[in-house]
Amino acid sequence: MNAETIRSSTLRAETPACQLLERQGLDYRGWWWVAPPRDTWLEAGQGTAVSADLGVRAAWLAAGRPAISPFAALPVQAGGAPPGAVLFWPKSHALGEWWLLWLCAILPEGTPLQLVGENQGGVRRVLKVLAALGLGCRKRDSARRCSLFETRLARVGIDPDAAWTTFETDPGDGPLTLTSHPGVFGHGKLDAGTLLLLETLPGVLPTAEGDVLEDVLDMGCGDGILAAWLARRGARVTAVDVNAFAVEASRRTLAANDLVGEALESDVYSALDGRTFAAIVSNPPFHQERAVDYGPAARLILEAPDHLEAGGQLIIVANAFLPYPDLLERAFGGFEILADDRRFRVYRAIRG
Q1: Is the pLDDT of residue 35 over 90?
Q2: Is the pLDDT of residue 207 over 80?
Q3: How far is 148 from 153, CA to CA, in rounded Å?
Q4: Phi, psi at residue 140, to the nearest 5°?
Q5: Which of 42, 48, 113, 223 pairs as cysteine with 249 (C-beta 3.0–4.6 A)?
């Protein structure tokens, strides 16, 4: 028994999909865990995480485990192909298809692939997807309301980049071209909450004058609609997101509109090195897959004063039922509601 096996044997899998994998008793040394959930059994075990989620990769690296982004230079490109891969089927079926096509494109033909996920999350649909791609498949196991399938990768003749799409939208002051991906919030459409925020911003966000450009942070940038709108109005924009798909989408959106802005992977403020801004704008997420998660939005609000200049403002849009007023009161000592259409509210708080 090697050191890694000894270390991981003291831990038990926490998530249902990982519990199903744990009971396989297979040697996963060197395998890729693709789009994995947070689970200490995985993070203390064997193999490499391949994730677009910066928070997941940071957790693996903190545990001394290797973790890579699908947009980084990959070890397989230097001859370091893994002996196999496990794909955790995501909530978004289209995103699962992208991961599958990406794996078929970059890993050697014949590489073993396991696909695991919760039945409620649609993992059973992978049978039809694999059949349509001409990949054989068999069901290996099921438990904990999850299913585990296995196949072998092959070239399927479909470029994963075909998942990137563009669409036109007009937020009220002229059309913008947005680039989108199945891994990005609001894929392929303008979110109603974001539209309300865009309709509200002109009345409260000063326009840059002359050569003095306002520094504005787009937190949770998604497909880059806010960053592009702000850049077109003369702001010096920094767009951040924990999701690598969103960061890449924002870069492509800015380029498609001949606009300049910076897009960074960041777990809330982690990549900003204490920088401050005249304004922070956001439509913060509150879901992690199917689970409600207020953590990132709470950090966004509570840490905002440390990243705002004196007199700087935080402007966010959120579902009306979300408990953000208490957080805004704690962080700023007060706030105002700029817009309310009964479904969404736009809040503003100013650093004194």
Answers
A1: yes
A2: no
A3: 16
A4: -90, -40
A5: 223
